[in-house]
Each structure stands twice: as structure tokens, then as C-alpha cells.
Write a structure and sequence with these properties.
- This protein is an alpha/beta fold and about 475 residues long.
- It has helices at about 10-15, 65-75, 80-90, 95-115, 130-140, 245-255, 275-280, 290-305, 325-330, 335-345, 390-400, 415-425, 445-450, and strands spanning about 5, 25-30, 115-125, 145-150, 165-175, 225, 265, 285-290, 315, 350, 365, 375-380, 405-410, 425-430, 435-440, 440-445, 460.
- About 30% of the residues lie in helices and about 20% in strands.
- Strands 6-4-5-3-2-7-8-1-9 form a 9-stranded mixed β-sheet.
- Helix 4 (about 95-115) packs parallel to helix 5.
- The protein is globular.
- The two termini are about 40 Å apart.
Length: about 475
């Protein structure tokens, strides 16, 4: 299947759903806590945390002896086992080696699914890039290394004790000597005005022959350092996702190493920049992420930018589709259940609150049904037993926060006293058609799954994170400054 989003651990998804040599291009940006004190990455750890991947924005890894031993038993590449074992023996059992143990089997699977003509771009920062490159050399073969691309950018945060860290590393590997590279698709303007060169000889000449270099009319092929602006706070494409990468960066990679109709895979798709770049450039795509928040953001982005609808234009695999599956998710991981449930409400997003704080708010959405100001609706999610006390407390939260609507989402059916208590909160009259909307509404997960949603002025919904700018498919690569 193509044009599909998978929710789950990408190692399991790759093994279960993605066939051998079926993917033309892979881009991955596996999250890693590079902002921690460098020395803390090497602090010795012990214990048996079983997490296979980080979740949401926690951007940290923890050592698991079980994961390490499982990798050594299952890995089909003895040289990779020897390498990773050497890393662990040399560097210790710590955050960094936990990250490398996690990455190793996934890189094996990514090599398996890549076509012989395919390429892989691994995005990382200098904290772990040198270890990852050695692993890639072992898996792909050093002869298939093509580039170490430095993505250079500017921004705030300058140290007084060392040079500012303002670049990421992108490793470009092919699976064989026969790989796609569309050089003319990614040409950029020359750094000087070509018209000012009076003679072709001013460009230099070929060694040993009387032949002058001539500028290409469409510009030059980029070097291995790319100056592309990051997604700053003023960028139109900004969604508020912490690790969001600029669309121009992914467009260059996709245009260079794939053709229209080819399949692009992003196994750590986050907010989905690789997915929307592939859609824009008329490629097929597969995205994988282990957080429901990421999957929900990608759905909104595909809708905002291209008008795509789930089930009609693309599929989502791994999310609950029935009440029984929702209950199973709640028992397995209440935090992910909460994020998934919030995603059932159009345009809603998880509420950002301080760690450990319980404000009584799980989600929020904004709407503007008159030109004067935006209004907000608060969401509370319950996966366990509920009572009228929950409604009374949530009503107080809604009033305290000055919200227009309160949306109470529960896995268990509400009691009659709960329904009566909610009705006592009265109604809000929206200027859109002068409709009366209950100020405090209750819906079950089963109701939302069946299409019976909350009463919200849907034509006036705003995105809690900035709404993605709508683009036309195949609109071409974004313009970026001269390099």
C-alpha cells in the first residue's frame, strides 16, 4: 500500500507491512537529545526500560539491556553486531549507545526495503553523526556513500565559549552504483551574476584541453553544504512542531533522488514534512510515527495543503477504529489514548501544560465565528469511570479559563446526572446562523467514531498550531537564497 500513514513502532511496521526492495527513496530524521550536556550522554546507565522509541517530544533514550541482547541475537549482519558491541564496550551503556542500539536494526530493515536504484538520506546532528556514518558504511557498503551534506542555517542561541552550532548533517547513501540522481531538477542560481563575465574563459578551462567552462543556463548543481532557512517563528509553513524541517530542504532531496510516481518512505515522520513534499511533487509516500499527535498533525496538514481526506485519498493503519480497540489502547497507554482521542475532534490539539501540572485541560481548539476575536473550546478526556463530579469540576475549569465551550470526551457512557448537570450550563449563540450550542457537551468515543461529533462552528475552526499554507501539487521547489 502507498499513500498510507502507519501508527506504531517503525521496526514492527517495516517488518510487517513493507516488502523487500519496494521503496525508491528513504528520508529519516530520528530524534535524538542533542541539547543535553554532552557529558551526560555518556553517563553509565542500568535497568530494563522496554521503550523501543521515544514518544512525543521527550527526545531522550534510555538504556535497555534486553534490547541490546535481542539485537545481537537477531541481527543478520555479523559485522554490524561486532561494531555495535564495540561501541557499547568502548563508550559504555548510556543514552548514546541506547540510541545506536535502537537505530541498528531499523537501518537493516530500511536497507532491505530499498530498491537497488534507491537512496537513503539520514538527517542527524554532529552529536552522533560520526557513529551513524560507520554503521551506514557497514550496512550499505562504504563504496555507496555519496555525500555528507551540511545543512547550514542561522538563528538565535550563541555561546560565548565555543563557535555557534548552526548546522545539521545529512548522510546520502545509495544501495548500488545505479541510482537516481536528477541533477537538473535541483539546480540553483550561481552565486555571482553570470552576465558580468565577459568571456567563457573567465569561468576557467578544462585541464589539458583548450575548452572553456560554460555556465549552465539553469544554474549550478548544489555543493554538499546547503544554506536553507530553518522554520522560524515567522515562517508561513510553521506548525509549532519542535523538530519541523523546512519544506524546501525535503523538496530538494526528493527531486534529486526520485521521479514522479516513485515511493518515498519516512519512518520517523513527525509532523510530516517529507510526506507533504512527496505529495506536492507527485510521489507516492509512506509515513510511520509512534505518536498519535504526529499522525493527527499530518492529517490536518494533508487536508489544509491539498484537500486530502482520510480513507478517500489515503489510509491510516494502526489507529483504533472501534470502541474495543480504543479500550485496548487506553489499557496499554493512557497518555497515547488521550492524544488519539483529542485527534478525533477536528482541529483540536493537546493542551501544553507544565510537566506534573494538572489543570483539568487535556486539549484545546480555537474557532472564530465573528470577525472581532477568536474563541476557544476546552477538551477533557476520561478513559475510566466517570460521574457527575467530573462534569461539575470541568464546568469550573471552563469558566476559570474564559472558554466559550467545554467538550467532555469519555470512553464510558455518561450517567443521567452527568447529562443533566451539563445541560445546566446553558447555551452559546453563534453568529453563524444564530445557532444555539450547548456550552458543555458530552460525547463518548463510540459516538465520535460513528461520526456523531461535538457541535462546533466547523466553518470557523482555527488550528491551534498555525494552519499549513495551501499549495498546488507539483508547484515546484521553493525558492531559497543564493548559496
Amino acid at each position: 500500500m502507498t499513500r498510507v500513514l502507519y501508527y506504531g513502532d517503525n521496526l514492527e511496521v517495516l517488518r510487517k507491512y513493507i516488502g523487500d526492495e519496494t521503496v525508491d527513496l528513504i528520508y529519516l530524521d530520528p530524534p535524538f537529545n542533542s541539547n543535553r550536556d554532552y557529558n551526560l550522554l555518556f553517563r553509565e546507565q542500568s535497568g530494563e526500560p522496554a521503550q523501543a522509541q521515544i514518544k512525543a517530544f521527550t527526545d531522550t533514550w534510555q538504556w535497555s539491556e534486553r534490547a541490546f541482547q535481542t539485537f545481537k541475537l537477531e541481527c543478520p549482519n555479523p559485522r554490524l553486531v561486532e561494531l555495535v558491541d564495540g561501541f557499547v564496550r568502548t563508550l559504555g551503556r548510556n543514552d548514546l549507545t541506547a540510541y545506536l542500539v535502537m537505530m541498528a536494526p531499523r537501518l537493516i530493515e530500511l536497507h532491505r526495503v530499498l530498491k537497488p536504484t534507491g537512496s537513503l538520506y539520514l538527517h542527524c546532528d554532529p552529536t552522533a553523526s560520526h557513529y551513524l556514518k560507520v554503521m551506514l558504511d557497514v550496512i550499505f557498503g562504504a563504496r555507496n556513500f555519496r555525500n555528507e551534506i551540511a545543512w547550514c542555517y542561522t538563528g538565535g542561541g550563541r555561546s560565548q565559549r565555543y563557535f555557534g552550532k548552526k548546522h545539521d548533517i545529512i548522510f546520502f547513501y545509495s544501495k548500488s552504483d545505479e541510482y537516481i540522481f536528477n541533477r537538473d531538477a535541483v539546480r540553483i542560481p550561481y552565486g555571482i551574476d553570470v552576465s558580468k563575465r565577459k568571456s567563457l574563459w573567465a569561468w576557467g578551462k578544462h585541464k589539458g584541453v583548450e575548452k572553456a567552462y560554460a555556465p549552465h543556463p539553469e544554474g549550478k548543481i548544489p555543493e554538499d553544504w546547503w544554506t536553507i532557512p530553518p522554520v522560524n517563528s515567522q515562517a508561513k509553513e510553521r506548525l509549532g512542531y519542535p523538530t519541523q524541517k523546512p519544506l524546501a530542504l525535503l523538496e530538494r532531496i526528493i527531486q534529486a533522488s526520485s521521479n514522479e510516481g516513485d515511493l518515498v518512505l519516512d519512518p520517523f515522520c513527525g509532523c510530516g514534512t517529507a510526506i507533504v513534499a512527496a505529495e506536492k511533487l507527485r510521489r507516492q509516500w509512506i509515513g510511520i510515527d509512534i505518536t498519535h499527535l504526529a499522525i493527527a498533525l499530518i492529517k490536518y496538514r494533508l487536508s489544509d495543503m491539498f484537500g486530502l481526506q482520510e480513507r478517500k485519498d489515503y489510509q491510516v493503519i494502526g489507529e483504533p477504529t472501534t470502541e474495543a480497540e480504543a479500550r485496548a489502547l487506553a489499557q496499554q497507554d493512557r497518555d497515547e489514548f488521550q492524544k488519539w482521542a483529542i485527534g478525533l475532534v477536528p482541529r483540536a490539539r493537546p493542551y501544553q501544560q507544565k510537566k506534573g501540572a494538572d489543570t483539568g485541560i487535556d486539549g484545546v481548539l480555537y474557532f472564530q465565528d465573528d470577525p472581532r476575536d477568536a474563541k476557544k473550546a476546552l477538551i477533557q478526556v476520561k478513559s475510566g469511570k466517570v460521574s457527575v463530579k467530573d462534569i461539575r469540576e470541568f464546568a469550573q475549569v471552563v469558566k476559570r479559563e474564559g472558554a466559550t465551550l467545554g467538550l467532555f470526551l469519555t470512553l464510558e457512557p455518561p450517567t443521567e446526572p452527568m447529562i443533566r448537570e451539563a445541560e445546566q450550563e446553558g447555551f452559546y449563540t453563534t453568529p453563524l446562523g444564530n445557532r444555539l450550542l450547548p456550552r458543555l457537551q458530552i460525547r463518548t468515543v463510540a459516538q465520535l467514531l460513528s461520526g456523531e461529533g461535538f457541535l462546533i462552528p466547523s466553518t470557523a475552526l482555527l488550528m491551534g498550531v498555525q494552519q499549513a499554507e495551501r499549495v498546488a501539487p507539483n508547484a515546484g521547489q521553493q525558492q531559497i537564497p543564493l548559496e
